Amino acid sequence: KQEVTQIPAALSVPEGENLVLNCSFTDSAIYNLQWFRQDPGKGLTSLLLIQSSQREQTSGRLNASLDKSSGRSTLYIAASQPGDSATYLCAVRPGAGSYQLTFGKGTKLSVIP
Amino acid sequence: NAGVTQTPKFQVLKTGQSMTLQCAQDMNHNSMYWYRQDPGMGLRLIYYSASEGTTDKGEVPNGYNVSRLNKREFSLRLESAAPSQTSVYFCASSVTQRYTEAFFGQGTRLTVV
Predict the structure, then answer these.
(1) Are B18 and B79 in contact (CB under 8 A)?
(2) 3-state class of A69 per DSSP?
(3) How far is residue B62's CA from residue A83's CA, in Å, rounded to a whole number?
(4) Which of A31, A98, A104 sits opposite B42 (nearest CB)?
(5) Nearest CA-CA distance, residue A16 and chain B, Å
(6) Cβ contacts (< 8 Å) between A96 and chain B: which residues?
(7) Quick check: B98 pLDDT over 90?
(8) Residue A89 near residue A38 (C-beta atoms within 8 A)
(9) Chain A within 8 Å of B45 (Cβ-Cβ)?
């Protein structure tokens, strides 16, 4: 069974710092990996989708990388801002079976002004 | 740009009552999903519909039923609510169930007393 782990569970950084969020998964047979942002009491907002054949995706200050063979993905946030404070979730879509997303429990990011 | 719309946003039920959570998407997506999110447990799949006319169980289907009413709408029914079903429920959709990005609604916060 696919398991997705996000470490650390919480992270606090000063404004302006570059940071990396980590996601690891146990089964490398995946179709893709998706990063989401969740604000308190809100739904999930899709940030980036990386297909299994890709190494990275970029959107603005966000860059996500994927190393499928080692079962790891990172989300890099450049020049962090207080508005980046949220919980960040990664989810993998397995390459067989029901193809349904398996989520990590998230990293809660606080960016301190 | 409504995306995925869920109703209601909040609901309080008494044990044993029934209710239906509604979900509609306007993105012409084929696949739709219902998740629940609980503290410490992350997001878990309840049911999904890969395409109109099909539904399948996810990780935690017990106590729930679903209906894919048409391509746009996917409802989740609790026949006899239990306190263990207190949770935040999210509906999501994607073009297909394998390769494409998933989009989430804003959630329904359900409390069963």
Answers:
(1) yes
(2) helix
(3) 38
(4) A104
(5) 29
(6) none
(7) no
(8) yes
(9) yes
A34 reaches B (C-beta below 8 A)? yes
Task: Please name which of A45, A79, A34, A41 lies closest in space to residue A61, comparing C-alpha atoms.
Answer: A79
Contacts for A64-69: CB closer than 8 Å, 24+ residues apart: A64/A33, A64/A35, A66/A33, A68/A28, A68/A30, A69/A28
SS3 A84: helix
Angle at B48 between CA B43 and CA B51, to 5 degrees: 145
For residue range A3-57, list pLDDT tens digits in order. 999 999 999 999 999 999 999 999 999 999 999 999 999 999 999 999 999 999 9
Residue-wise pLDDT tens digits, B64-83: 999 999 999 999 999 999 99
Asked if B106 lies within 8 A of A42 by C-beta distance, the reply is yes
Q: In this complex, is the C-beta atom of A94 within 8 Å of any C-beta atom belonging to chain B? A: no
CA-nearest of A113, A111, A109 to A40 is A109
For residue A99, the chain B residues in CB contact (below 8 A) are 97-98
